[in-house]
Amino acid sequence: MRRIVLAASVLVLAGCSNFGDLFSAHADVAATAAGQSLSAEQLAAMMGKAKGAQMNAETAEFIATVWSDYTLFAQSVARGTLKSDSATVATVLWPQVAEAKGAVWYDTLAARRGNASPGSADSVYLADTVRVFQHILFGVQATASPEDRAAARKKAQLALAQLQQGANFALLASQLSDDGSKGDGGWLPPAKPGAYVTAFDSAAWRLAPGQMTGLVETPFGYHIIRRPTMDESRDRVLAYLTQDATRRLDSIYMDSLSIQYDLVVSSDAPALMRAGLADKSGMRKSKKAISKYKGGKFTVAEYLRWLSALPPQFAAQVKDASDEQLTQFAKALSTNQLLLAQADSAGITLPADQWAAMQASYQGVIDTLKINIGLGPDVTDSSVALAEREKVAQLRVDDFFTQVFEQRARLRPLPGALGQVLRDQEGGKLSQAGLTRAVELAVAAAAPGAPGAPAGGPGGPPVPGGPGQGVQPAAGPPPVGAPPASQP
Questions:
Q1: Which of 214, 261, 335, 392 has its CA 20 to 30 A from that of 433?
Q2: What is the distance between the alpha carbons of residues 108 and 404, in angstroms, rounded to a whole number?
Q3: At what angle do helices 57-79 and 386-405 cross, to 10 degrees?
Q4: Longest Cα separation, the chain
Q5: Phi and psi dihedrals of 38, rounded to 5?
Q6: Whole-angstrom distance, CA of residue 102 vs CA of residue 114
């Protein structure tokens, strides 16, 4: 199944960076949202309460944005403007909807191609270009003592003796193997020559169908390797061929989209992508072309929309990516856009049960957020004056953040693009001057000797879930690292 450049079921805080029009005046205010204000002093105090938080601009912006998201949510609940109709859900969950529609369309294309047949699996087995193996690993660490190594070898020899006397290989592997294949009877994925370390590969490729090796020593320990027969291997080779055909269809189809629509990535695309990342608010509606294709173009605004659907850590990867990587990323996003356009033109819709599940998931997250923040009848009762409901809603948000920093509650992200939808609806801004002032106050308060300063002063590990954490793997081209050597 073709997976477009999205994490399908991830709920992200859309726009965990600048949003609205960053205003530079009033350094005493760090953020405003739905008529509520977060002062620089309040933000600095939050930073100081966040255990291990780094006192820097990224932390200030992260906390201010999350505060804004929660404030916008609470105020929309108080005002009765939080919607849950199909159009709103589709807008909020557009990343998941796009992913699902792309998958349905791609599965439709793959089904037209047809599946590999058992006969083709047998042909591959007999051609001997791909093999399937089973093994039992008796793991030995590189730093193991001679005594530990000898103990592992003895254990392997006892198992080998059992196998030579007719014991079931898969059963013994499920009991003894020290690797992930233990749960699957010692089966390893179909592989071509050279896929495994030399000692393993050399011994395995000398086996005839149904044969088994003696003890084979590799850097991972001692192995007993078996080559299953054609009948035993057929289903696994068939699955391998189906997956391989899907991968090839993926590449061919996406390349064909580029050719069919004359897709050309602009020479200044990397610069535009970096500029958009640095000034999301200012370029959020930019129509500048990152790429052009027959009948349209892929704009900076569309790029930022896709980027907001990815985990916030991905922005760090984009920021550090080379021009070549950004060009490939632009091409991938552009072809995703074309794929979705084709899906729409083909009349592709989500299955009713899948759409119902998305709606239920959205409503479930909304209900959970209301409960966690404490947005009960005193906030939603229309017989209570609006001003009073808004006041109570903000008190609930402030109390919730106190609980978070005291580790009595945890932050949950707003679903999909709800943060951006609410910002457009209710209004929200960050003040660069206010954020800077908050950092200054937080650093001063955390300095050694300052009243209430934590031991060790500023610095330390980042806020859990906040900026500065190790970059997590994310979908999409940049950056692509080389895969590690396979471990049998």
A1: 392
A2: 46
A3: 140
A4: 84
A5: -115, 115
A6: 19
Q: Are 65 and 17 in contact (CB under 8 A)?
A: yes
* Cα 382 → chain centroid: 40
Please state the φ and ψ torsions of residue 310, each to the nearest 5 degrees. -95, 160
Q: In whole angstroms, what is the distance from residue 56 CA to residue 64 CA? A: 12
Measured over the CA atoms of residue 11, residue 16, residue 18 and residue 24, the dihedral's sign is positive
User: For 480, what's the count of Cα atoms within 13 Å in the CB-facing half-sphere?
Assistant: 8
Tokens 């088994």, residue located: 212
**Measured on CA atoms in the order 427, 430, 434, 437, is the torsion positive or negative?**
positive
Task: Count CB neighbours of 85 within 10 A.
Answer: 9
Pairing of strands 221-226, 134-139: antiparallel
- Tokens 């790029």 belong to 303
CA distance 69 to 309: 15
CA 86 to chain centre: 25
Amino acid at 332: A
Q: Measure the CA dihedral 340/344/348/353, to 10°.
A: 80
DSSP 252-320: HHHHHHHHHTT-EE-TTHHHHHHHHHHTHHHHTT---EEEEETTEEEEHHHHHHHHHTS-TTHHHHHHH
State pLDDT tens for residues 176-206: 999 999 999 999 999 999 999 999 999 999 9
Q: Which residues are paired to 297 by β-bridges?
A: 292
List the helix and strand counts (H, then E) for the chain: 19, 9
Q: Which two tokens stand for residue 168?
A: 């079931």
> Cβ distance 462 to 52 under 8 Å?
yes
